[in-house]
Amino acid sequence: MGKMRKIAVAVPWHGHGQNILLGVSKFAQKHPLWTLHLVQSDSPVLEQDLRQWNPDGIISGVVDTEASTSEQSCNYKRPWVAILMQPDDPAVPFVTVDEDAISRMAANYFLERKFKHFAFLGNDMHEFSVQRAEAFRYAVEEAGYECSVHLYPTKVHNIDKRTCEAIDRNKLKWLKNLPKPVAVFACNDWEAFLFIQFCRQYDFRVPEEVSVMGVGNDELLCNISNPPLSSIRAPFERVGYDAAELLEQILNGKKVAQKKHFLPPMGLVSRQSTDVLQVSDPVVIKALQFIQEHVSEPIKVEDMLKCVFISRTLLERKFRTELGRTPLEEIRRQRIQRVKQMLADTNFSITEIAVLCGFGSDVRLSTVFKEIAGISPSEFRKEVKTPSSIHGF
User: Fold this and answer.
1) How far apart are CA 11 and CA 53, in angstroms?
2) CA-CA to 30 of 20 to 30 Å: which in 23, 97, 249, 308?
């Protein structure tokens, strides 16, 4: 039996940190020689803790542990894989989420629902929030619209009551001045959850006036929110797994060819906080409701015509005017969204998913999926699943 490897993992023990730990632990379960030592990333005795335990390798973020892990890397000469933030030292490999891809996914979601007014809400104390704000605004402006960005300090543990009240006043002023209806992308689920409460407190209707989306898909927060919160599924578990895999390569003396790893989002879970389409034509609204109710069935445009009682030519004209696509394209779009969610969230086979999503066969599903998504269903599943999930662990 080989030598035991002591691995220190310094991440927050809440929120996304739990998913990162889960990813690291799944890798460790497949490598019995790994012994994990978990440290709160904001621990005041982090440096002392790491020195005392003297790990063989370190997985940590950069924001709260920069001084400690940098010192460990320099003085102890221990391998270090950074997560979520790019370290100053270009020789240190890191794994993070693709913030541009996350923000573009949010922008595309709202643009597909024909929103014309956009806003971003976040804090100015975390780089990921600033990055998501910039990327979201860029994607919106690229589509020809404007985006209002409101960043404020949200780490209020030591802020006095007067400062907190001033923060709320500024947020309320910003909210009142936003043109309605507006699509608001929050930097994470917690900010989105609090903002929905804030909107309800001041009688702004969600999603009719203010449509809100978060990041992280924290199922507790998303489902206790009223209304339930839509959220982008960030690949935090895979960040942990891939970081552990990188560290194992380094410990085995292998050269890491690619040091920068940007992982794409795993999909989007649409809930009631964004369950609205900016469509004015009552016929199109009725047709869209029909698609949503029957998207798992093998419906055709002819079935929609029986619901709305107009000609196919007129229905297609209305769809192009309101949505910029045909009824058939909308059916396929909604089906593929459902397929993506099932590929990410379940272990159903492609054939089973084809049946559950209204496709005649797995061949037909694969053909349509590749036309729309640009890759095959199996390639998409490989991208969004952690390696451990792919192999059934």
Assistant:
1) 16
2) 97
- Reference 271, options 381, 192, 387; nearest CA is 192
390 Cβ partners below 8 Å, 6+ apart? 381, 382
In this structure, are strands 94-97 and 118-123 parallel, antiparallel, or unpaired? unpaired
Comparing CA positions, the residue from 385, 99, 346, 386 lying closest to residue 241 is 386
The tens digit of pLDDT for each residue in 64-81 reads 333 344 433 434 467 889
Q: Which residues pair with 148 in a beta bridge?
A: 119
Q: Phi/psi zone of residue 90: left (φ > 0), alpha (ψ -120 to 50 degrees), beta?
A: alpha
Per DSSP (E only), the strands in 62-188 are 80-83, 94-97, 118-123, 147-152, 182-186
Task: Measure the CA–CA gap between 216 and 128, rounded to whole angstroms.
Answer: 12
Residues 350, 343: Cα–Cα separation, whole Å: 8
- Distance spanning both ends of the chain, measured CA to CA: 23
Bridge partners (DSSP) of residue 7 are 36, 57
C-alpha span between 277 and 280 (Å, rounded): 9
Pairing of strands 230-232, 268-269: antiparallel
228 closest CA partner among 244, 207, 246, 256: 207
Question: Which residue's entry shows tokens 């059934």?
Answer: 392
The mean of the pLDDT values for the chain is: 86
Helix (H, G, I), strand (E, B), or coil: what is residue 128? helix
Q: CA-to-CA distance for 62 and 125, rounded, in angstroms?
A: 14
**How far apart, in Å, are the Cα atoms of 108 and each of 23, 112, 145, 231?**
29, 6, 12, 13
DSSP codes, 159-200: --HHHHHHHHHHHHHHHHHS-SSEEEEESSHHHHHHHHHHHH
**Alpha-carbon span 188 to 177, nearest angstrom:** 22
Per-residue confidence (pLDDT) for residue 175, from 0 to 100: 97
Tens-digit pLDDT profile for residues 256-301: 878 889 999 988 888 889 987 778 889 998 998 898 888 888 899 9
Neighbours of 393 (CB within 10 A): 12
Confidence of residue 63 (pLDDT cuts 50, 70, 90): very low
Pairwise CA distance, residues 56 & 77, whole Å: 9
Strands 230-232, 80-83: pairing kind: unpaired
Q: Which amino acid is at 22?
A: L
Give pLDDT, residue 157: 59
